[in-house]
Write a structure and sequence with these properties.
Blueprint lengths: L2 H11 L6 E4 L15 H4 L4 E6 L11 E4 L5 H12 L4 H12 L2 H27 L4 E3 L6 E5 L6 H10 L20 E5 L5 H15 L3
Parallel strand pairs: 1-2
Antiparallel strand pairs: 2-3, 4-5, 5-6
The structure holds pyridoxal-5'-phosphate.
The site of pyridoxal-5'-phosphate has 6 residues, from loops.
């Protein structure tokens, strides 16, 4: 969000008992912008900040964290207990050790460069081979949304791509109810290497041509 919208949101939260849930799940991988400070740091009594190891280490770990106003600690602990009786201790201790030893920071520094290169390869391949797509949201994270031309049949493109050996999700499932849907494809680059990314985009381009 722009600084003005962030300020407006903090203003909104300053009234009554309002809280902001800041889901900063992609914060660690930002490529062509300076890191953005969290809202939580600006209003620690109004913001619950959520982070996750799912993008930085592995989603299968199922570890994340909250930074919350102290007044909510008891309630949050009770909800967590009711939800799953707490996350596994061994994994938490291993992660704490990894953090304290500086290994997590080293891992992030190394992976930032790897993902930045993959992202560049993906954007180049899209520009070259699928110019009818409009990529968006490439400045952070591990995926890029590529909008299809208006009126395109998203499900058909996805089916064709799957038939050619590339499985990728569309944007339709992210809309609620009968909201107008803009057709688009989601390209993740957390897992495939650079060569696979180019091969995948070539196949998606073929799917777009109706092949
Ligand atoms: C909006 C959002 N928040 C948080 C997460 C992280 O989820 P989890 O930590 O449950 O794996 C994701 C994962 O993709 C996400 O898309």
């Amino acid at each position: 969000m722009s600084p003005a919208r962030r300020a407006a949101l903090l203003d909104w939260a300053s009234v009554g008992k309002r809280l902001i849930l800041e889901d900063d799940y992609d914060a660690e991988y930002r490529y062509d912008r300076q890191p953005i400070g969290s809202l939580q740091g600006l209003a620690p009594e109004r913001v619950i900040y959520a982070g996750s190891a799912s993008k930085t280490l592995a989603p299968g770990l199922r570890l994340g964290w909250l930074i919350a106003p102290g007044s909510l600690a008891g309630q949050l602990a009770a909800v967590k207990m009711a939800n799953d009786r707490g996350s596994a201790s061994l994994e938490q201790l291993a992660l704490a050790d990894f953090l304290e030893a500086g290994e997590f920071d080293r891992h992030l520094r190394r992976m930032r460069a790897v993902y930045r290169d993959r992202r560049t390869v993906l954007l180049d391949a899209l520009r070259r081979h699928a110019p009818q797509l409009t990529p968006e949201g490439a400045s952070a994270g591990l995926h890029v949304v590529a909008w299809l031309p208006d009126g395109a049949d998203e499900a058909r493109v996805i089916d064709r791509a799957a038939g050619l050996g590339v499985r990728l999700p569309g944007m339709a499932r992210n809309y609620l109810g009968s909201a107008p849907r803009r057709p688009g494809l989601l390209f993740g680059y957390g897992r495939p290497g650079e060569r696979e990314i180019v091969e995948g985009v070539l196949l998606v381009a073929q799917a777009l041509r109706g092949g």
